[in-house]
Specification:
It contains 28 helices and 30 strands. It is of the alpha/beta class. The chain has 3 domains: about 270 residues, Rossmann fold (3-Layer(aba) Sandwich), CATH 3.40.50.740; about 230 residues, Dimethylsulfoxide Reductase, domain 2 (3-Layer(aba) Sandwich); about 130 residues, Beta Barrel (Barwin-like endoglucanases), CATH 2.40.40. It has a 6-stranded mixed beta sheet with strand order 6-5-20-19-18-7. A 6-stranded mixed barrel has the order 25-29-26-28-27-30. A 5-stranded parallel beta sheet has the order 11-10-9-13-14. Helix 4 packs parallel to helix 21 and helix 10 packs antiparallel against helix 13. The chain is globular and about 75 Å long. The relative contact order is 0.17. The protein binds ligand PGD. Ligand PGD binds next to helix 18 and strand 19. This is Asp-tRNA(Asn)/Glu-tRNA(Gln) amidotransferase GatCAB subunit C. It comes from Afipia massiliensis.
């Protein structure tokens, strides 16, 4: 990769270090320096396949989308806390830090004293930035625990909301399954056939929460392919597996993988190719499931002809694949994306059953690699020493929501819902506090989310840029970008621990989340408890000590903090590639049972069956999709992860904006669908359904299945007329179109990946993109609270 240089957008950009200093990000380790007033970023010299997302940094650092000073929404200043539909439509008033923090401190005190800490939603979901100390979610949780007496939290993630609830019932520990299982090393060496349902897209596996020093996935697939391993790629999008895998592409209808896997098992059973010994010894519930597959319980055999009509894959292709899987070291991969949809639990469960029917679970390079390729730290070895980690304190508030139920919670205080076998009640939330996330990017049905955010008394957001979430807040507190502060970077599946040096001074009056919380804690009488009397540098030394001590105890080189800080990164020891719980279980099923109710792989789960949820029965089942194409919305929209940025982060950076078309996000559609609508490559199109509409540029390609359109997430929501109930997003945020429902009553996970839409060419006057322009700001002096 070439080095990137970009002129800072403002004269105030500092030209400090002229020597490359180490830093890291979710998209990889890099070094940065200033040269002739320009910031240069350079990836790790040992990284075989760097992620170009780091190229967003230079242009983003001093971009006008950054927030320069604390702001309070005019309506909140004038009328005080309370529900307000003007959130997201209002002007802002700049305040001094002291004035803003005094106001916010008083509001936090009011909410705590009048309504209790259980009225504060501090779930604050989001990826924020790499760095073990400045991790915004850890900071906000620590602050709310220590200074407010707790908060209503969120559980699970938008990434894996369905699988993380399902897996403990059927396979055991979720973290073990995804982080200590089949590795890329094993694939390169042992796998003979890999079937990737939903693919293993490099754009996803090139990102890791925390840091990553080497991107190895492309090379591992190329090595496996060169050795003779066959890759089979089941997805509506060809780009979901890299060319290096040399894969057979089976283009299937989105959301139908469970039916395809059922038919594979049906073929195996009908032809006597399933591994009865494995099923008898290591699983429970096969006989119940087998009756379902053969159609003995519902009269419908789940054979290849049945699946062909559902999946759009020919029956011959299905039976041929089942036969190829038999007798080979076979690995079944199911991507996170398949479970980010209605009934998302089913393909995850069915993938495990298919791997079990093949008798491959627990073998090197074989079995079930759930979510392999979804993120860079899956399929790797774990570190053998603990990472520096900031304590979040104790949260005494028991209430929580599954993370993607936020709008439901705000719209239905006291309402009930089902989750993991229990009936739960939504709390009554008065204050929402967010740092390091962008719900107006990540949540489904943004127009509904706007109504939900209008319900509460006060919304507080720490942000580095004017995201739609910041625009929907009452208090907007400008946070530093990672490049502007020092930290320690690393993740528990990457051996490189990185001293992260600051390479720029803070933008405007931006402050570290830690500094903001320390000053707020002071106003709540908890400064000492929050800071423990430490400066940032002292915290870094303190957190590093845990890792250093563990290294010393293993008789390994354990440099002092000063030596670590002066270096380019410390290589940590890693655990052996031992296959984790599934290998141990295979080797010794009685001595090392799985942590499931039966100690075995649960093909039928008594526990889940006892919940009696129609949308998640006791074994994997084909459930007719609720959201299916129809006359008014005939196309299936795949709203997947973007390639040129992480989620919505630094959408205003050069690498991200460079990939847009006439300033809009780019959708992809099949030539036949385009011709039928009079759409040509490079047109601007309008995507719409009953929930909303957005504009996008369009590329026409046969690398996508007919009847499917793809638009990635992450373009900042940009409503042309914010006063409207469901305004047109002129920039291309697909979450104005997605449906805000849970995967099922079991997990209530995010279903943002798939929805249905119609599309037309947009011939009107093209509205300008305003997503990156700061909102209207009242002039100083117009408010009694204005900055002095
Ligand atoms: P990001 O854009 O990463 O998205 O949702 P998430 O909210 O994590 O948001 C992080 C925000 O933190 C950014 O706005 C960034 O500027 C800010 N930030 C970065 N560093 C700091 C810092 O140090 N301090 C503060 N205060 N702020 C900081 C991601 C979520 O989206 C996820 S994980 C998934 S998997 C989902 N995927 C889909 C999907 O597949 N399809 C749809 N339709 N929707 C999805 N949404 C989900």
């Amino acid at each position: 990769m070439t080095e990137v240089a970009a002129k800072p957008a403002s004269d105030s950009a500092p030209a400090t270090n002229t020597r490359f200093l180490p830093h890291t990000s979710h998209w990889g380790f890099f070094s940065a320096r200033w040269q002739d007033g320009e910031l240069e970023v350079r990836p790790h010299s040992d990284d075989p396949d760097p992620n170009r997302i780091i190229e967003n940094f230079p242009g983003a650092l001093r971009h006008r989308a950054r927030i320069a000073q604390p702001m309070v929404r005019r309506g909140w200043l004038e009328r005080g806390p309370g529900p307000d539909v003007r959130r997201g439509r209002d002007e802002f008033v700049p305040l001094s830090w002291n004035a803003a923090l005094d106001l916010l401190g008083a509001e936090l005190t009011r909410v705590r004293d009048r309504h209790g800490a259980g009225s504060v939603f501090g779930g604050s979901y989001g990826w924020s930035s790499a760095g073990r100390f400045h991790h915004a979610q850890s900071q906000v949780h620590r602050f709310l625990n220590i200074a407010m007496g707790g908060y209503v939290r969120s559980v699970n993630t938008y990434s894996s909301g369905a699988s993380s609830v399902l897996v403990p019932h059927i396979l055991g520990d979720y973290e073990e399954l995804v982080k200590r299982n089949v590795t890329w090393e094993q694939i390169a060496e042992h796998s003979e056939i890999v079937v990737a349902f939903g693919g293993m897209a490099l754009k996803n596996s090139m990102v890791a929460g925390g840091s990553i020093s080497k991107h190895i996935e492309r090379g591992a697939m190329a090595r496996a392919h060169a050795r003779g391993c066959q890759f089979v790629h089941v997805s509506p999008l060809r780009a979901d597996l890299p060319e290096e895998a040399g894969a057979q592409w089976i283009s299937s209808i989105p959301g139908t993988d469970t039916a395809l896997m059922l038919a594979l098992v049906h073929t195996l059973v009908s032809e006597g190719l399933h591994d009865r010994n494995f099923l008898d010894r290591y699983t429970v519930g096969w006989s119940i499931f087998e009756r379902y597959v053969l159609g003995e319980t519902d009269g419908q055999p789940k054979n290849a002809a049945w699946a062909a009509a559902i999946t759009g894959v020919t029956a011959d292709t299905i039976t041929a694949l089942a036969r190829r899987l038999h007798g080979r070291r076979a690995l079944i991969v199911v991507s996170h994306s398949l479970q980010r949809a209605e009934h998302g639990e089913q393909p995850v469960w069915m993938g495990a059953v298919l791997a079990a029917a093949l008798g491959q679970i627990g073998l090197p390079g074989g079995g079930y690699g759930y979510a392999l390729g979804a993120i860079a730290y899956y399929g790797r070895r774990n570190n053998a020493v603990p990472m520096p980690t900031l304590s979040q304190g104790r949260n005494p508030i028991p209430e929580f929501i599954p993370v993607a139920r936020i709008a439901d919670m705000l719209l239905n205080p006291g309402g009930s819902y089902r989750y993991n076998g229990k009936t739960k009640t939504y709390p009554d939330i008065r204050m929402v506090y967010w740092a390091g996330g962008n719900p107006f990017h990540h949540h489904q049905d943004i127009n509904r989310l706007r109504r939900a955010f209008a319900q509460v008394d006060t919304v507080v957001v720490h942000e580095l840029g004017w995201t739609a979430t910041a625009r929907h807040a009452d208090f907007v507190l400008p946070a530093t970008m990672t490049l502007e502060r020092e930290d320690i970077g690393g993740s528990s599946n990457d051996p490189l621990l990185v001293p992260m040096h600051p390479v720029a001074t803070p933008y405007g009056e931006a402050r570290d989340d830690y500094a903001i919380f320390a000053d707020l804690a002071e106003r709540l009488g908890a400064r000492e408890a929050f800071t423990e009397g430490r400066t940032v540098r002292q915290w870094l030394e303190h957190l590093y000590e845990r890792t250093r001590k563990a290294l010393a105890e293993m008789d390994l080189p354990a440099p002092s903090f000063d030596a670590f800080w002066a270096g380019d990164g410390l290589i940590l020891p890693q655990q052996p590639d031992d296959g984790g719980q599934l290998r141990h279980f295979r080797d010794n099923p009685e001595g090392q049972p799985l942590p499931t109710p039966s100690g075995k792989i649960e093909i039928f789960s008594e526990t889940i069956a006892s919940f009696q949820e129609p949308d998640c029965p006791g074994h994997p089942t084909w459930l007719t999709p609720v959201t299916a194409p129809g006359p008014s919305t005939p196309l299936i929209l795949v709203a997947n992860q973007p390639t040129t940025r992480l989620h919505s982060q630094l959408d205003f950076g050069g690498h991200s904006t460079g990939a847009k078309h006439r300033g809009r996000e780019v959708a992809r559609m099949h030539p036949d669908d385009a011709v039928a609508r009079g759409i040509a490559d490079g047109d601007i199109i309008r995507l719409f359904n009953a929930r909303g509409a957005c504009l996008a540029g369009v590329r026409i390609t046969d690398n996508i299945r007919r009847g499917v359109i793809q638009l990635p997430t992450g373009a900042w929501y940009d409503p042309v007329d914010p006063e409207e109930e469901a305004p047109l997003c002129v920039h291309g945020n697909p979450n104005v179109l997605t449906r805000d429902v849970g995967t099922s009553a079991l997990a209530q996970g995010c279903t943002g990946q798939l929805t249905t839409v119609e599309v037309e060419r947009f011939d009107g006057n093209l509205p300008p993109i305003q997503a990156y322009d700061p909102p209207v700001v009242s002039k100083a002096g117009e408010s009694e609270h204005s900055a002095k």
